[in-house]
Structures are given as C-alpha cells and as structure tokens.
Design a protein that fits this description.
Layout lengths: L3 E2 L3 E2 L4 E4 L5 E4 L3 E7 L14 E10 L2 E7 L24 E5 L2 E6 L2 E6 L7 E5 L5 E5 L4 E6 L15 E9 L6 E5 L10 E5 L14 E7 L3 E5 L5 E5 L6 E7 L2 E8 L3 H12 L12 E4 L8 H13 L6 E4 L22 H11 L4 E6 L2 E2 L4 H9 L4 E2 L15 E2 L5 H16 L4 E4 L10 E2 L7 H24 L21 E2 L7 H15 L6 E2 L1 E2 L8 H11 L5 E3 L21 H14 L1 H14 L8 H4 L13 E3 L3 E3 L8 E13 L4 E12 L7 E4 L2 E5 L16 E5 L7 E6 L5 E7 L7 E2 L9 E4 L3 E2 L17
Parallel strand pairs: 22-23, 22-33, 23-24, 24-28, 30-31, 32-33, 37-45, 40-44
Antiparallel strand pairs: 1-2, 3-13, 4-5, 5-6, 6-7, 7-21, 8-9, 9-10, 10-11, 11-12, 13-14, 14-20, 15-17, 16-19, 17-18, 18-21, 19-20, 25-27, 26-29, 34-35, 35-38, 36-37, 36-38, 39-40, 41-42, 42-43
Helix pairs in contact: 5-6, 8-9
Length: 788
C-alpha cells in the first residue's frame, strides 16, 4: 500500500504521521524500548496533542533481533500467532552499550544502534564486529497512517469509519536485491514490486500466490521475517526506490531481522525461528502418477495406467487418486465412489501386492459439501465455521453448499482425524491437502473467539496441514508422514511437502513454476514439486518431455493434469522410439532412482539446515557471485549438481556456470566458469553439471524403485582437476540415518576410505575428463541411465 504521492506529497485521502525523533530510550530485560514522538520535541508544549510510536528492540537469539512498532498499546492482541522457536532455542541474551554514536543492542553476531543525534530518528542494523552494515531505519521510515484522513483529532474517538496502519521502511542499498516471500511466480528479484501477502487460488501466472510466506532474503547478508499471519502489504522499492516498506492494518507491526552473513546461515536461523522442515521418507522421492483432476476413471483405468508404465520400464512409486475417488457434489465426505471403487481396501491391497506401486495417496480438501454424508454430522456437532448470526458459513463456489472445517475447535480436529484414520485403514499412505486459500474473513465467527478472522485467512493453511500431518505421523511414524499440499504460510515447512499449484501446459508456465520453486526455497521450504506437463490444457509432446527432465530433478516428481491424463503414451500416440515420451520418462525416472543415495543424503542435510533440496537458488551456493542473484531459469540440486531446464523444442538452451570447473554429467567433459554457455540438447539430456571436487554416489544400474540399500553395489564418481584435492560424500540409509562419510585422500587413483560403510561390489571412477568445446554434441552420451 502506498501512503505517499511521490516524494513530496501524501497520497490522497490518507493522513501519515512519522516517528520524528527518539525521545527516550529505556533498557529492558530483553533489549531496548524507544519512545518516538511524531514531531520533534523542542519544548514541553510539543508533548501535547502528539501521537507517539513505541519501538521495542529485543534479542531472542544469536543473530536475530526483533523490532516491534506500536501506536496504541491498548489494542487487543488477538491470535492466531505463528508458533515461534517450535523446536526450542529461544534465549534472550541482550547486551547494551552506549557511546557517543548511540545506544547499541547486540544479539550475538547482530547489533542495532540507535542514533544519539539530537531531535533525530535513526536505527542502523549491522554485524556486531562492525564489518558490515545491513540496513537501517532512517528519517521518516517508521510511521502510522489513517484512511480516510481525519480533519479533527476528536474524530479518532470513534475508529469504526477509519482504517489504521503501521508501517516501517528499511533502507535498500545500492545494488541490493530481495528474494523469497513464498512461492511467487513473477520476477525473481522483488525490488520494484508491490506485493500483497494474502493466500489466493490464482494459478501460476498472476501476482497472486498460494503460499505467501512473510519472509524475504537480501543479497546483503540478512533476512526479514514479518511476524503476523494477517495481510501484509509490501512496497519493495516501488514507493520509495531506496526502501522496502512493510505495512499492516492494525496498531502493531513486528518483524525480525536475521543475520547470516551467508544465505545458508540466514535460512538456518530462520528455520530456528519458524520451524525446521521435517524429513521425508525415501519412497516419496520416486515418481508419483495421478488420475488427473476431472478425468473419468475407475479401478480398471488405474490398473491399465500402472501396467502400462511397468511395460515401458517406468517405475511408479506412488499412485494418487485425485478428487473423483469421491462422487461429485460430495467432496469431501471421505467415501469412495462405490460404483467406481466397490472395494477400495481390496483394490489398494492388490495394487501394492502386485508390485505396480508401493504407496497410495488420495486427494482431500477442508471443505465439506452439503450433499455429502459428512456434512450433516459436522453441522450438528458444530465442526464447521459459522456466521456471526449462528448460521453455518456456506457458499456454492467449488462445491454446492459447502462448509469449512473449523480447525480452532479441538473436537472438529478429533473428528477430522477420525475420518483420515478410516482412509488409512483402507491402505492410504499419504494425503494431498488441496485448497485452503479462500478462507472468509467477513461475517464469520470461529469456535475460538480469541482469533481474528482476518489473521485466520493465511494461517488456516498452517492449521489444516498440521492436522493432517499429525494424523499421518500418529499412524505411520514420525518420519513416514508426507503431505502434498498447495496452500502454505510461514511455519508450514514443518509439514512437507508442497507443490506449485495450477500451471498451464506451456514453456512459459514451466518457467513460472521454477521461479515459484526458487522463491519458496528461499522461504525455508526444503521439498517442492510441480505438475509435470502442466495442469491446464494438454501438453505438446515436446513440452511434456522437457518438463519431465525438469520435474525429475525436483525433490519430488508428480505427473498431474486437469482434463487430460499424463501417462506418456497418451501424449504422443504411444511413440515407442528413443525420443518418445515413454522412453524419455523412463530415462529420467531411472536417473533419479540411481541418484537416490545422493538425494537422500542431501535431503536430510537440507532439512536440518532449513535449505531447499531442489530447486535451490544459485545464490545459496554462490552468494559472492552477483550474477547468481538474478538466475531464475536454473537451479542447484543439493550442493553439487547444477540443472538448467530446456524451454525450447529445438533443444537450445543458455545457462550460467559460476567460477570453477564443472563436469557435464552426461559426457564427462568439463567447462570452466564463470561464464554463460549455449548448448543444444536432445530429450534425454539437459545441462546437468557437477561441481568440482565432488564425490557423487549412485545406486547400481537397473535398480527399480527408490527405496533400496544405498550402500550396496554403488557407483562412486569423483570430479576434480587437482589430484591433491580431497573429496568426500555422506552416506545415509533409506531412512535418512547417517551411516558415515566416504573420504578420498587427495591423490588420483587412491583408495576411498570407506570403513565398513559400503557393501557388495562397488565401482569407483575418477572423472578427470577433457575440456568441453562448443562443437561437442550432447547426444554423444558416455553415461546411460535408460532402464537396463
């Protein structure tokens, strides 16, 4: 929201008051409290008829300082509130020092210095050792606003006709970039954008987002977390070019500045603040196949799909039943359509025992249709959200007469969990938690009278996913729970995983999806997926194949569409050639299967550190390279693999390699960065480069399914130029348990120190390689991952 009309004028119809000076500083047990009048106090009379802003600076954790700005402290503090420091770690240890420059609050490696200049306002955030200035709150950067503007202060005695805002503006340095704020599909660098953090079902080609996360990361070595689940309006260099403005409607605005200095350290501290991502089981990394959305299917259809995949050497690890496992007009009543699936428990058991699939997922949402069997019971028991007059809140959007489960009611949570357990009894292993964005805020009364309906809009996604994730953990164990969620807010990273929502079947939509995944990864989410081939429309074969390559290099990989199936033979009329959709899908599925020792180790590490596994923004691994802060068409898979999806039917692609030596994964030839490169690829390759001094561990050739022994009969490849450089790789089992580290002592041809980790017959290869040239054709494959 903009409060000014250019630099000199206030926006029409708005009254703005700024903190003009720091009048008084009080030291507290947690930090500092600043009294800031909205005019300069040069005499006693200036203290009359003057609003003030209180700014509380607190030091809850090393490298983190909170900043809370309050106008009227008597405003009720209604929830819901983010669950901060959920795994522990909250420990106030403020240090306060004063000198002629000002008063400094230190929280370990991060400090905030309040200017001592007379009749001035200024707070600078910097590293405690003084080596780095991060940002600042300068003159007229903290304020309050009314809309409409009042003409007489007496009018504020009745605030029913006014909206009240609090805002802060942190300085944007020269060349500073801003990233994150959830899964956003526009430009990667947010400077110049106006962004509203408000969950919406808007697809992947608009300014709306399914997953609004109130956290952003700067290339200057810090991040900012805005501590409110309500609507947040951001003007990131879009009102004042040199400032990032955060505003909320209300009387208080609180945010945390988090110091790195590296992006990895910022994200780690952010994960301490809002929750670390949980680990996901190894089976979830495999290929997921769905029925698509509005297609007509039954048991015979499901069997034909899975048998067709097996015939074409494509291993499916998870099969997903989308919406119409239930009858139309009855979602979500948790009852299989008896005409299509007369005995779902037996069918699921047959699927698993046949070896066609190892796990089964079903679709749900938090809406209860009036015509479904669940509605009457939920309505009678008071499990659905109500209007203020006591009626159940209903509308006909999405489902006729649908109500919304009120997860602030503990009994509603218990009932919903019982419904889920009935699905688990039938053999369902995981849940797709769809929707949860269109949560009403007007004329509603939640069971918990202490929550603000406005704040519940975004926060509902957290409650919804937490309820389902907790039910899965209770049934299958703490490390076996998996969601496939669409809506999210800060903290939802604790309940993996999420996917990118409804995209079109176009190369532009594939690029939008990548940008969304990059932004979400910079918002603390480790695991992410998308609809391979696009959701809306029917993909052309070439788009499907390019998307398959991209999708199988994401942490999680799912074939899904809207009105058309995504099995490969229906995309290209069952082209059985080496370039057909089936062969390409088989190739990339086999590659991901063999990469599981690497992916599982990297995924475990990513979750522990609050980092994305894939797609991981280049700036996370190479923060000192300015180019990497602008790359939005490529990503890292863990620490050591760089992937650049192809968006052209011709196979032409341009990508960037940071400094160092990089090996083409497929040809074993190397390039030296930094620099931009152009290549041309068929459908079974893409720019996939291995970082220098990497030890890459693969599963054995021809293995089926992603769950296997990651220590037996493996293939160890070492990529390096300098023989004296040592390399290593962590080894985990299929449960993600750390088993040890393989170490190579630093001379080419030396033995690997493997202790008792490896079993069976294993292969080691030193990939010294040869230089790459522009003339090399990437169809000259030295390493094949087609099924054996």
């Amino acid at each position: 929201m903009k409060f000014r009309d250019g630099m000199w004028a206030v926006a029409e119809g708005v009254r703005v008051e700024y903190a003009e000076e720091v009048y008084d500083i009080t030291e507290t047990d947690k930090g500092l409290s600043l009294l800031c009048p909205t005019k300069k106090i040069r005499g006693r009379g200036d203290t009359l008829n003057c609003s003030t802003l209180t700014i509380d600076l607190e030091a809850p954790h090393d490298g983190i300082i909170s900043v809370e700005t309050t106008h009227w402290a008597g405003a009720a503090r209604k929830g819901p509130n983010f669950e901060l420091f959920p795994q522990g770690g909250l420990k106030y240890a403020p240090k306060v020092a004063k000198n002629d420059k000002g008063t400094t609050l230190s929280s370990g490696s991060l400090s905030a210095t309040v200017s001592s200049a007379e009749h001035a306002f200024g707070i600078q955030f910097h590293s405690t050792d003084g080596s780095k200035v991060l940002t600042s709150l300068a003159s007229r950067s903290v304020g309050l606003a009314y809309s409409p503007a009042w003409s007489n202060m007496l009018q504020t005695g009745d605030m029913r006709d006014f909206k009240h805002y609090v805002f802060t503006q942190t300085n944007l340095g020269v060349g500073e970039t801003v990233h994150g704020l959830g899964e956003r599909f526009g430009a990667f660098n947010k400077v110049g954008q106006a962004i509203s953090l408000w969950n919406a079902d808007g697809g992947t080609s608009s300014e709306q987002a399914y997953k609004n996360v109130s956290f952003w990361l700067s290339n200057r070595g810090y991040g900012v977390f805005i501590d409110t689940p309500g609507r947040v309006e951001l003007e990131i260099g879009s009102e004042r070019c040199c400032r990032a403005q955060t505003s909320i409607e209300g009387q208080r605005l609180k945010w945390y500045i988090i110091y790195g200095p590296s992006p990895k350290e910022v994200l780690y501290r952010y994960s301490i603040l809002t929750g670390r991502p949980a680990k996901v089981p190894s089976w979830s990394y495999g290929l997921w196949l769905t029925t698509s959305f509005t297609t007509n299917y039954d048991e015979a259809t499901v069997n034909s799909f899975l048998e067709g995949m097996k015939e074409r050497d494509i291993q499916v690890d998870v099969f997903h039943y989308d919406c119409f496992w239930m009858k139309g007009f009855r979602w979500t009543d948790f009852i299989f359509d008896s005409e299509k699936f007369p005995d779902p428990k037996a069918q699921i058991a047959r699927l698993k025992s046949s070896g066609l699939v190892s796990k089964v997922c079903v679709w749900i949402n938090p809406y209860i249709a009036q015509h479904g069997a669940a509605f009457a019971h939920a309505a009678e028991k008071g499990y659905l959200l109500k209007r203020k007059n006591g009626d159940i809140w209903q509308w006909d959007l999405w489902q006729a007469g649908m109500g919304l489960v009120d997860f602030t009611n503990p009994e509603a949570v218990k009932w919903y969990t019982e419904c889920l357990n009935e699905l688990f009894d039938k053999g369902v292993d995981c849940i797709k938690t769809d929707f949860g964005e269109r949560i009403p805020t007007l004329d509603v009364q939640w069971f918990d009278k202490e929550v603000d309906p406005h704040k519940m809009h975004n926060y509902y996604a957290y409650l919804y996913n937490k309820v389902v994730y907790t039910a899965l953990q209770a049934r299958y164990g703490e490390t076996e729970a998996v969601l496939f969620a669409r809506a999210a807010c800060a903290g939802t990273q604790q309940f993996p995983l999420v996917w990118g929502g409804d995209c079109e079947s176009t190369p532009e939509a594939m690029a939008e999806s990548i940008r969304g995944g990059l932004g979400l990864g910079l918002s603390g989410f480790s695991f992410w997926s998308n609809d391979i081939g696009g959701f809306e429309g029917s993909p052309a074969p070439w788009i499907y194949k390019r998307w398959v390559a991209f999708g199988l290099l994401c942490s999680h990989s799912r074939l899904h569409g809207s009105g058309s199936y995504r099995v490969p033979w229906l995309v290209d009329a069952d082209d059985r050639s080496a370039d057909g959709c089936s062969a390409v899908l088989a190739t990339w599925t086999a590659l991901k299967t063999r990469l599981m020792p690497y992916l599982m180790a990297q995924g475990t590490k990513a979750a522990e550190r609050g980092l994305p596994l894939s797609v991981r923004a280049m700036c996370i691994e190479f923060p000192e390279d300015p180019t990497c802060w602008f790359l939005d068409r490529q990503f890292m898979v863990g620490e050591n693999l760089l992937a650049a999806p192809v968006f052209e039917e011709s196979g032409d692609v341009e990508f960037y390699l940071p400094g160092g030596t990089w090996w083409c994964f497929f040809t074993n030839r190397w390039r030296v960065g930094p620099g931009w490169f152009r290549e041309k690829h068929g459908f079974d390759t893409m720019p996939l480069y291995v970082r220098e001094d990497t030890m890459l561990v693969f599963g054995k050739s021809g293995i089926q399914g992603v769950v296997y022994d990651y220590t037996a009969d493996i293939d160890v490849r070492i990529y390096k130029i300098r023989a004296e450089t040592a390399t290593s790789a962590d080894i985990v089992d299929s449960d993600g348990k750390f088993l040890g580290t393989l170490k190579e002592r630093g001379d080419a041809g030396s033995e690997i120190e493997r202790g008792e980790i490896l079993k069976g017959t294993w292969i080691k290869t030193w990939c010294l390689g040869i230089p790459e040239t522009m003339a090399v054709k990437h169809t000259d494959i030295l390493m094949s991952f087609r099924p054996q």
